[in-house]
Specification:
- The chain is an alpha/beta fold and 575 residues long.
- The chain has two domains: 310 residues, ABC transporter transmembrane region fold, CATH 1.20.1560; 200 residues, Rossmann fold (3-Layer(aba) Sandwich), CATH 3.40.50.
- It is built from 20 helices and twelve strands.
- The protein has a six-stranded mixed β-sheet. The protein has a four-stranded antiparallel β-sheet with strand order 2-1-4-5, with no helix packed on it.
- Strand 4 and strand 5 form a beta hairpin.
- Helix 1 runs parallel beside helix 5, helix 6 runs parallel beside helix 9 and helix 8 packs antiparallel against helix 9.
- It is elongated, with a radius of gyration of 35 Å.
- The relative contact order is 0.08.
Amino acid sequence: MIKLLKFLRPYTGLVIFILIFMFGQAMAELYLPTLMSDIVNNGMMKGNTGYIWKYGGYMLLVALGSSLCAISGSLLSSITAVGFGRDLRSIVFTRVESYSLHEFDKIGTASLITRTTNDIMQIQTVLVMMMRFLIYAPIMCIGGIIMAMSKDRTLTLILAVVLPILMAVIGFFASIIVPIFQALQKKLDKVNLVLRENLTGIRVIRAFNRQYSERKRFTEANSDLTETAIKANKIMAAMQPLMMLFMNVTSISIIWFAGLRINLGKLELGDMMAFLQYAMQIMFSLIMVSIMFVMVPRAQASAVRINEVLDVSPEINDPKQAKRSDGKKGLVEFRNVTFSYPGAEQPALSNISFAANPGETTAIIGGTGSGKSTLISLIPRFYDVDSGSVMVDGIDVREMSQKDLRARIGFVPQSAVLFTGTIADNIRYGRKDATDEEIMHAAEVAQASEFISSMKEGYNSEIAQGGTNLSGGQKQRLSIARALVRKPEIYIFDESFSALDFKTDARLRAALKKETKDATVIIVTQRVSTVMDADKIVVLDEGKIAGIGNHKTLLESCEVYRELVYSQLSEEEIA
């Protein structure tokens, strides 16, 4: 957790003021019992009303000052902690955005959500307590002991017996509760994981009538979290009455032995009352420390998890001196590219070499698991190659800045992803300064204008979370429109026509050909009908190139392509 406190630097001034206010509160509260002792000894016992009024006024002023310091310190500590939480969430989110796809998979989406929300909240809560009690509690404890000794050294022996026992009990509870809180965060991850899978996969769950089994799965994860939380709360709950028992036993002991000393004339009544208050202040400060001990372990477990996110060094980084191309726009080349997923026994791609030229349509086709989507993921640098190089405009993508590289690409992923907002907002996501006319033109080319115009509010119609109020084909067409409005040098379509009927597919490809005539177009598909008119077809088989050429050439020379054609088309269509 100490490692994360470096993000408090912008709030150094506020922290200093908080410490000053907490110091002022502690000193005021330490001075109050002494004033009360003087009033009892010199005012009430001697019947001096003027003395009582005078020092009673001082007590009121000191109490007011203590209250103002407490309120100011609490307010500033809350502002600081909330600001720290906001900044830390932003830092974690920014770091996660720089992750490669492999790093996303390594930690897990559900866990990243928990770490960015619940874990940071735990640290934020503890930070408020630390700033409020970090100075206050030690001063109250040490100052209380000093002031108590100034009243009666003999009675201080009671504290010498009670305090070590109290600290040992606090340490014992802390040693038990630390591993429980560490387990609690992991179990919360599990609940989030199951919940997220159920919410995103609700259609599949209902289609296969698996509501009962999924409910049982969630109940098990939820019960496991509940049992662990109850166990932790039982331990925390047991601490409070135990602390109160120590305080009351200490009070009784002080009153008993102080009464004996008063009877012997060795202690005054006011000093006994002051000593009793100092003892309570010492005990209360230790109780605050015990509460800190209860909360800090959970925050420490959360801090470890956040540090794991921040300590991950992104695999994909910009070069120190990024290169920019002034040559041919849109040229994509693969030169002896080999790529393996972490932990895989065999490369996903081996010795891939071909070029996709501007003004041409390059199609990549192959069976399931042949490496098509992996291949095009290397162009926008979602992954880095093991060997060889991917060139864009004559420059290795690893020597370009990610921003510059991806600004040249219009990418339509295999799973159409839409965001909450209007249809116009989703299309404008491709280029934020796109005009309404450009949005409408992109939708028309993507064959989306027809269904958009039939919607009640047209381009201002709201899209539900995940695009659940649209069909698969409609989502694909909006994703294509989003890429078109960008007007990039390179278009990448990864199975982007799979949900379209053949008639819409044909119209869309005809419109795309006119729109992208000067750009490089790369189409990934399993449909032979989609690639037949491509200028170049790259056939993949088990991560290797089985053939390169046009439809006619491959039909004669490539066995893998021929099998795909005969499995999908009739003899009349082939002829």
